Structure formats: structure tokens, C-alpha cells
């Protein structure tokens, strides 16, 4: 049994090295977030857009979204608003028509948002749209969104992600945590990846994909419940990259409760695992044939759930290693607890510091965010058991999260 202690130390050290390398890559990208975003220049309005909105029981919130789209600083003849009601038990379709949108009702039962978008694309691809912009029905869109995407498209972007802001950061501590998370994704991931000239990540809403890219891909393909990450993977494997367009802003409704957040994050994690299983082998093959930094970065993104499990395992192994260094049972328990508390404390301080930094960089400081800032570390920590459960039982169910926050477009200013 004398080998257990050195073996535990060796395993802890090996896991620490792997996690440090992964963390250093993300730190390198995040450190470049200060770099000025890519300049797409100014181009006259020319791109013809189809705006797609998959809507499931969104009668209460879809009006402000449609109003914000109807009042874009963009020629109305160059875009159409298409709402695709699916699995509805309310009057979403009627509300969408009354507010001035066109409606494509999904036949039957939809199993994922990707399936709904694929259906809409098949119905619309003969109408000679240049690109498709996708929003969630609970969003409100900045008046310059389409013009900013036009600039990016005219400058050569074939897929682009806009800035995903929050509609309700101050409502509850959990809505604040989710808002901070998206601000971090905007600043540290997408802005950092843009500075490295690799691909940003499509985030499910507030993005653009061109007809040219879809032609190159062969279709709007959606086989998982994480259609945004799946489209990102397809784009990078096709030799393209998702451009970052921070001036194209979408305001998104965040979950109010821990229960809603758990449901949402379990779907995200399950979807990431599905995409990793489906696309990581292709990424590995392509890296062996023609390595690219964008592919390596995609691989690092796909292994995030595995990284989270490794972090949980590393904490457990570290506590066991500390316990094995003691000669008494009481000492072993105290040593294990001390090691676990030290790891958790370090992670909590780091998470809180990063959250404070991104709030500062984005100019979002408000005393109403203090409860969220205080529990942000716990928000991230709860992702570990969510990931563990998702590995054990991967959900494929696209569960509804009901949205109720009705905000007028003019109230959303950045």
C-alpha cells in the first residue's frame, strides 16, 4: 500500500499539468481581449437578410423583439422577419402576425431548435437571401444590428456572432450570474479569439450565417441539441471562421431561478458532449492532416466538459493525497477538508476577481449586481455536478424555459 501516496501525488501532478496547459491557452486568448476589434469598414446597405425566430410559447415577449426588428436602421425591403412557432400551446403565431412578422408554422413536434431552423431554411432558401440572422423570441435587438452585420458580410464574413447582452441583469442573483457569464464569453472568448484571428463561437442567438457558407456545408445541418456549437464546428472544419461583430448587439432574457439555470446548463453541457462525440474525431483527423490554430482552439472548446470533470477529479484526488500523508484518521479527515477548502477558496477568489474585471471592462458596474458577484463562484462550481450528471445521462430533450420579461426596445441602451 506504500505506493498509493506517491501514485496519488503523481496523478494529481499530471492532471494539474494538463489543466494548466488548457487554462494557459484560454488565458492567452483572454489577455488579448483589449485589442481593438476587427474593423469591417462602412458599406452601403446591400445584404438581403432573412431573420429567423424559433418561438415556443413566446406570446408574452415576442412583440418587443419584432418591434425592435421593424425599427432597424436598415432598408425594410432588404430583410424579412420570419417567426417559426413550434410545440406551442399559446397564441404565439397570432401574436407574431399581429406585430407584423411573417409566420412559418413548424409541422408536428420539434425536438430541437436546430430542427426548426433547418425546416425554415429549406422553406426559404429559394428566395435569394444572402444571409440568415437568428434570434431567440425573448430577445430585443439593437437598432444597428442588421447594418453592422451588413458591414461584416460585405467585408467577407460568412458567419458572424454579435454581442450577446442581457435584458434583465438586475432581476435576481442568478440572472446576474448568467449576465456576467455572457459578458465573459463576449470579452474573454470571442474578443480574444478575434484578436488571435481564429473563430469566435456562435452563441445560439444574435448571429448571422450566409447562404454561401450553407451552400459550402451542403445544408443547414443540425443533429444535436447544441445547434450553435455544431454550426461553429462545421464552419471551422470547412475552413471558414465565425467573425466577431461586437457592435451588433442582442439583449437576451436570463433565467431567474437556479432551477431554470440548471435546466439550461444541463442542455448546453449535454449538447457540447454530443457535438464533441460527433465532431472531435474529424477535428483530430484534420489536425493530423493540415493543422490549424482554429482547429486546435475548437478542440479545446469541445473538451470543456471533460476539463470540468478533470477539475472535479483533481480536487478529489488532491484531497485524498493530503489525507494519505497523515497517520491518524482524524488527521486524514482534517487534511482532506483543508485541501478541498483551499482549492475551492482559490477557485472562488479567481472567479470573483474575473467577474469583477469583466464588469469593469464592459462598464456594467451597478450595486444591484453585488448579489450576483457574491455567488458567481457558486454558479460556476455548480457546473461540475451538472457536467457529471450529463456524462452519466446525456439529455436529448429540448425543454421549454418560459420567458416573461417584456422590455421595450428603447429601454435597452448599452
Short description:
This protein has 414 residues and is α/β, with parallel strands linked by helices.
What does this structure look like?
The chain has 414 residues and is α/β, with parallel strands linked by helices. It has one domain: Alpha-Beta Complex (Spore Coat Polysaccharide Biosynthesis Protein SpsA, Chain A). The protein contains 14 helices and eight strands. Helix 2 links the parallel strand 1 and strand 2. The longest helix is centred in the last third of the chain and has 33 residues. The protein starts with a helix and ends in a 22-residue tail after the last helix. The model has no long low-confidence stretch (mean pLDDT 87).
Question: Which key terms come to mind for this protein?
Answer:
single chain, 414 residues, alpha/beta, Spore Coat Polysaccharide Biosynthesis Protein SpsA, Chain A, 8-stranded mixed sheet, 14 helices, 55% helix, 11% strand, globular
Distance between the termini: 61 Å
* CATH T-level topology: Spore Coat Polysaccharide Biosynthesis Protein SpsA, Chain A
**What class would the helix/strand composition place it in?**
alpha/beta
Q: What's the CATH C level?
A: Alpha Beta
Gyration radius, to the nearest Å?
Answer: 22 Å
> How many structurally independent domains?
1
Strand content: 5-15%
- Give the mean pLDDT: 87
Following the backbone from N to C, one meets helices and strands in this order, namely HEHEHEHEEHEHEHHEHHHHHH
Q: Characterize the overall form.
A: globular
Major beta-sheet overview? 8 strands, mixed
Q: CATH superfamily assignment? A: Spore Coat Polysaccharide Biosynthesis Protein SpsA, Chain A
Widest β-sheet, arrangement of strands: 3-2-1-4-7-6-8-5
Task: Show unreliable segments.
Answer: none
Amount of helix: 40-55%
Count of helix runs: 14
Name the CATH architecture: Alpha-Beta Complex
